[in-house]
Structures are given as C-alpha cells and as structure tokens.
C-alpha cells in the first residue's frame, strides 16, 4: 500500500471515527438527532452575534449576483455591525447596540435583509414548527462544514439548507429552497455563499461603525397599533394562518394604481386609496396582508413572483385584498381565500371556498 493510499485511509477513518464519536456522545446524553441539530443551530446563532469576524460573500437570486462585506464586532457588551456592497455606488447599513439604520441618504426600508433570515432566528422557538436535521458535509470557502436542513412541519413553506463551519460555527452557505410537492423537486430561490471568512477585529472598520451617522427614520416600525388593529378587524377576519405566525406590526399605507406607498406625501394623486396593512411572522418567514379601508368597485385578480417574494391580489365583497411576503403562491392564495369580509349586509367568505389552489399553468 503506497503512502497516498495510507493517508487517504487514515483521513476517511478519522472522519468516520469523529462521526461515530459524536453519535456516541449524543446517545450517552440521551440527545436525539433532531435535538442535536437544534443545539448546533442555537450555537450558530450565538456565534453570529458574539464573534469578531468579517464575511465576504455573494448572493445569487433572480436578479443576478451581488457581492457584499459584513463586519461584526462585539465590544464591551455592545454589538457593532456593518453591511456594505462591494460593487457599484457605496451603500452601508449599520448596527450599534439596539440601534439599526442606513446611512443618511439611504432609501426607506432597506436594512440587513440581504442576509439570510437564519442570521436572526430563534431556533429554540422555531423547533416547535420546523424539522431540523443534519444531512451531510460540505466544503465552502476552503473550510469544512456540516450541512443542516430546516423544513416546516405543517405548511408548504420554503426550506433552508445551511452549511456551518465546523470550527467557528458560522454559516458559510445558506440556500433558500422551494419544494414542488407534485414533482418532489427543489428550486433554489436565493443562495448566500461565503467567499472568505476573516476572524478578528479591524480597528479602522470598528471606528467607522461607531462614528457612523444612522438614519433611524429609514426603518419601518415593528410595533402593533391597537387602533389600526381594531379598524382592520372591523373589516376582515383571517381564520387561517400557518402555525407559528403571529401579528408583529401594522401600518396604514397608500395605494396608487398597483403600487403600495408607505409615505402618503409621496403622491398627490386623486387615484390613491388608503390600505390597512398587518405583518405576520413566525421568526423565519413573514408576509403582509393589505385590505382597503373603503369599498372598491374593481374586480382585480392577479399575482406576481420574484425569487422568494410573492404578491397575490384579489378583490371580493367590495374590498381589495393583497398579500405580499416570503411564502409560496399556493399558500398566499389559501390565506386570502380564508378571509371573511364584514360589512353592513353581513359576512362574506371567498366565493370559491377556503384553500383553493391557484392554477399557474393558465
């Protein structure tokens, strides 16, 4: 047996021994494979927030490829972070403790959303509604990683596949997947892939974050206005939400044509109408339901998809109903179909019944 074969045999043997040893440890501690995966993902969440590191990564989606840099530092119990694009005009998003916002010239609403949702997930809570499992090994950014799958137990929501660095426990690759239940095939909707991971703190970058001017007005509120909630519930009732989804925030927006505009002052059009909006989330995915405050005489029925984002709109019982969010089209339609519209003549359910699927082949 030559030296190359010996080294290969030793490498495979050590890898197998490591897996067996881990399995033996889990068995000794009475930890199931699922509990072990949850434990690892919780550890990943801690490392994301507390380690000092810089991630250079790319995001692939339906609009193409974009490169970014993410700095994360933890100093005197305060977290400092910066997300910057590496192509085109310079754009930065900052985090200083509990304060998050864009640079002073930024557009409203764009924050750390380019990072996968798993970066801010509470996996202990998510484990109530999601299956989490180790599914293999991978090599990303010249580092060995363990692969995990995160799939919803009850609803046809999107799934995540993560590759986590075995040393730092940081996520190196995150794919957002859609499973077609008919063909049992998967489509990658969005892919986060690390190019280079650098540990440690760069003092110049830290100073830049600490001295950054943050436009806090660029962030939408995340609180629930009880008056708006009451007004929303006087118009519609939503009996069906996927398990784990709860109301996180609400708002009042304007709609001009088919465009939803958060700031009413941006348009003086006589065509605009007020919409009540409620955002729901399970801690991993989210969607917003819009309903017209006033009755409408239109009969709109359309949908739109780009990557993981779905928009489905339908008018019935003289109300305009729209849902926008990170959910598959069939689920978006199912939620809208469950809505009961209230008016002076009584309550009106969807004419085709709850849970009807949309034929997207027409």
Automatic annotation (TrEMBL):
Domain MucB/RseB C-terminal: 241-339
Gene3D superfamilies: Lipoprotein localisation LolA/LolB/LppX (2.50.20.10), MucB/RseB, C-terminal domain (3.30.200.100)
Keyword hit for Signal: yes
One MF annotation (Gene Ontology) recorded for this entry: antisigma factor binding
Assigned keywords, A-Z: Periplasm, Signal
Subcellular location: Periplasm
Residues making up the signal peptide according to the UniProt record: 1-23
GO terms, biological process: regulation of polysaccharide biosynthetic process
Residue ranges of every copy of the MucB/RseB N-terminal domain listed in the record: 41-180
Transcription regulation found in the keyword field: no
GO CC annotations, alphabetized: outer membrane-bounded periplasmic space
Alphabetical list of Pfam families matching this protein: MucB_RseB (PF03888), MucB_RseB_C (PF17188)
PANTHER family hit by this protein: PTHR38782, SIGMA-E FACTOR REGULATORY PROTEIN RSEB (PTHR38782:SF1)
Family stated for the protein in its record: Belongs to the RseB family.
Protein name as it appears in the record: Uncharacterized protein
Organism: Psittacicella melopsittaci
Lineage, highest ranks first: Bacteria, Pseudomonadati, Pseudomonadota, Gammaproteobacteria, Pasteurellales
